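Students often ask why we bother encoding 3D structure as a string. The short answer is that it lets us treat folding as translation between two languages. Here is a chain of 67 residues written in the first language.
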Amino acid sequence: MGGLVVLLVGLLTALMSVVSYYVSPKGNNTSTWQMSLILTFSCCYLLWAITYLAQLHPLEAPSRVLE
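And here it is in the second language, the structure alphabet:
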């Protein structure tokens, strides 16, 4: 289930990037807007995916301290 969620959110991010490419404001700064939006979506996805996967498969297993 964990890997599927990451892929589905990745597809959603790709879809949002494509939509933002065509919906970005037209004018002198069109390419700046397009790249800014696409990079924002990509960086947010990477931050989320790394955090999600780190919690899904932690490097150290939790241990119980006996008193």
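Translate back mentally: The mean pLDDT is 90. Keep this in mind for the problem set.
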